[in-house]
C-alpha cells in the first residue's frame, strides 16, 4: 500500500491529510468519496502496534458516511451493545444500552485490535480513491 516514489508523482491534490490514524483515514475516505483529490501521509508503516480500544459511537456515528460500516460488521471484532459500571464496593449499575439513547445503526461499539482497525481504515481510504503514502517520517 505504501507508495514508493513520491518524487515522480506530479499530481495536484485538493486536500493533504497528515496522519493515517482513525481521524485521518476517515476524513480522507469521506473527501475521496465526495470526489476530492486526496493525498494522505502517514509517518509509520501500517500495521503499527497500538493498544486495544473500543470503537465507540462517537466515532461510529460517522462510519456510514465513510462506507465502512459493512466492513466493520463483517470483521472479527467483538460487538458490544451496552456498558455497565461497578463502583469500588462492587455494586453494579444497570446496563446502559446504547440504542436507548442513540437510535442509529451505529449505536453499538466494537472491541477492536487497534493495529488491525487502523490498517482496515487506511486501506479503505485508499479504496475510496485517496493516494496513501506510508513511512514518511523525516530523517532528521
Strand neighbour order, sheet with most strands? 1-2-8
Approximately how much beta-strand content do the residues carry? Answer: 15-25%
Describe the sheet with the most strands: 3 strands, parallel
Structural class by helix and strand composition: alpha/beta
Figure out the total of helices: 6
Q: State the end-to-end distance.
A: 24 Å
The proportion of residues forming helix, as a percent range, comes to: 25-40%
Can you put this structure into words, describing what you see?
This protein is an alpha/beta fold. The chain has helices spanning 22-33, 57-60, 63-66, 69-73, 98-101, 114-127, and strands spanning 15-18, 38-41, 53-55, 78-80, 82-83, 96-97, 109-112, 131-133. The strands form three sheets. The chain has a three-stranded parallel beta sheet, covered by helices on one side. It has a three-stranded antiparallel beta sheet with strand order 3-7-4. A two-stranded antiparallel sheet has the order 5-6. α1 links the parallel β1 and β2 (38-41). It is elongated and about 60 Å long. The two termini are 24 Å apart. The model is unreliable at 4-8 (pLDDT under 50).
List keywords for this structure.
140 residues, alpha/beta, three-stranded antiparallel beta sheet, 6 helices, elongated
State the gist of this model.
With 140 residues, this protein is of the alpha/beta class. 31% of the residues lie in helices and 18% in strands. The protein has helices spanning 22-33, 57-60, 63-66, 69-73, 98-101, 114-127, and strands at 15-18, 38-41, 53-55, 78-80, 82-83, 96-97, 109-112, 131-133.
Amino acid at each position: 500500500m505504501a507508495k514508493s516514489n513520491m518524487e515522480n508523482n506530479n499530481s495536484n491534490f485538493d486536500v493533504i491529510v497528515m496522519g493515517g490514524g482513525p481521524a485521518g483515514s476517515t476524513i480522507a475516505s469521506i473527501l475521496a468519496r465526495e470526489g476530492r483529490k486526496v493525498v494522505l501521509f502517514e509517518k509509520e508503516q501500517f500495521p503499527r502496534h497500538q493498544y486495544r480500544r473500543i470503537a465507540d459511537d462517537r466515532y461510529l456515528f460517522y462510519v456510514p458516511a465513510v462506507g465502512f460500516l459493512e466492513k466493520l460488521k463483517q470483521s472479527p471484532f467483538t460487538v458490544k451493545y451496552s456498558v455497565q459500571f461497578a463502583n469500588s464496593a462492587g455494586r453494579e449499575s444497570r446496563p446502559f444500552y446504547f440504542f436507548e439513547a442513540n437510535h442509529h445503526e451505529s449505536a453499538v461499539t466494537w472491541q477492536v485490535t487497534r493495529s488491525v482497525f487502523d490498517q482496515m481504515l487506511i486501506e479503505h481510504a485508499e479504496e475510496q480513491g485517496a493516494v496513501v503514502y506510508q513511512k514518511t517520517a523525516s530523517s532528521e
